[in-house]
Automatic annotation (TrEMBL):
Domain PucR C-terminal helix-turn-helix: 283-339
Name assigned to this protein: Regulator
InterPro entries per the UniProt record, alphabetical: CdaR-like_regulators (IPR051448), CdaR_GGDEF (IPR041522), PucR_C-HTH_dom (IPR025736), PucR_C-HTH_sf (IPR042070)
Pfam families: GGDEF_2, HTH_30
Domain of life, source organism: Bacteria
Family stated for the protein in its record: Belongs to the CdaR family.
Domain annotation CdaR GGDEF-like: ranges: 115-233
Organism, as annotated: Streptomyces agglomeratus
Length: 352
């Protein structure tokens, strides 16, 4: 279809309206306005640009100007009504298309991250959103002080930063359950690192977890679940790192794989601390900080706001109660593993 034919299609009846309004001074009827809106919708659905279409309306106005006797204000008022109605229909069609695209994208994200869809259909849909599920993918998840949606300024800010730096790489940024989700091919660690940096800043210090790369559609789910588990683990273990990598936390699932065995270790190694004045929690915190400080007494005392002498007294108290010396390399591993288990099992706040 030529440009002239396009112009004719979307300007049908326009010259007649101008002539009639110029002669009578009336405003456009409801049917005329509806017809202009319908033409605007059709133009948007056909993929024509609004700027060019408005230009063609103005060109048609010059060509069809009713003559020297026409009142300019009447003609311009009619042009204003026509263009406004046409643009309204065009924008309405665009909003509907955006909503439909967002709904399709949201459905795809939900199906992808839950593995609920037919694999063949999921692979076909993935291409539309820039993913090739035959490759390995990794997923990063960011959470902050509030829940985020696809249209929030935080999401748009991170998306803009990723697009500005990496262009048309196969990156899918979305939201799920109020968190930011970034899915990339498994070999693009630079994208995940940049996402973590930008998401941490955009969410005012939120935390980001990065799952390992896994192949196939199920690999996306696996990586996503690893990232979620890392965020949960960080809360339970009071980890303060802004970026968590599932690959660095593999020891924790191993330790909790046999929950009963870990509970037995915690109660056996740390249970006697409950007999201390003030209960087990102060001494458990002392052990936790001592181990986190690399068993350096001066650093642990500083972190606990204690003197080195007071810290030494607490460590001696733990030794007497448990029979295990935190400073003895033979005892240290058992105590440190038990402390990690206590964090994971939320002991002594919860019975195990």
């Amino acid at each position: 279809m030529t440009e002239a034919e396009i112009s004719e299609e979307y300007l049908a009846g326009y010259a007649r309206i101008l002539a009639d309004v110029s002669a009578t001074g009336r405003r456009l009827t409801r049917d005329e306005l509806d017809s202009r809106r319908a033409l605007g919708e059709q133009a948007a659905e056909a993929g024509h640009g609004l700027r060019a279409l408005v230009g063609r309306h103005l060109a048609a106005t010059r060509a069809a100007w009713p003559g020297a006797s026409a009142a300019p204000d009447r003609v311009l008022a009619a042009v204003e009504q026509v263009v406004d109605a046409f643009a309204e229909g065009y924008e309405r069609a665009q909003r509907l298309a955006v909503r439909q695209e967002e709904a399709a994208r949201r459905e795809f994200i939900d199906d992808l991250l839950h593995g609920r869809s037919d694999l063949g259909r999921l692979v076909a849909r993935a291409e539309r959103f820039g993913l090739r599920l035959s490759q390995a993918h990794a997923v990063a998840v960011a959470e902050g002080p509030e829940a985020y949606e696809d249209t929030d300024h935080v999401t748009r800010r991170v998306d803009r930063e990723l697009l500005g730096r990496f262009g048309d790489r196969r990156i899918l940024l979305a939201t799920k359950d109020g968190r930011l989700i970034c899915i990339v091919p498994g070999d693009q660690t630079d994208v995940l690192n940049h996402f973590a940096k930008q998401a941490h800043a955009a969410t005012d210090g939120g935390r980001v977890a990065i799952g390992r790369a896994h192949p196939g559609a199920g690999g996306v789910v696996h990586s996503y679940e690893e990232a979620l588990n890392a965020l949960e683990l960080a809360d339970r273990m009071a980890l303060d790192s802004p970026v968590l990598r599932a690959a660095d936390l593999l020891v924790f699932p191993v330790l909790t794989r046999d929950r009963q065995a870990m509970a037995d270790l915690v109660l056996s190694a740390l249970g006697p601390l409950r007999c201390a004045r003030g209960g087990a929690e102060p001494l458990l915190e002392t052990l936790s900080v001592y181990f986190d400080a690399g068993c350096v007494s001066a650093e642990a005392a500083r972190r606990l706001s204690l003197s080195v002498r007071a810290l030494t007294y607490r460590l001696d108290r733990i030794h007497r109660l448990t029979g295990s010396d935190p400073a003895d390399p033979m005892h240290r591993y058992t105590l440190q593993t038990a402390v990690i288990g206590a964090r994971l099992l939320e002991w002594p706040a919860k019975e195990i």
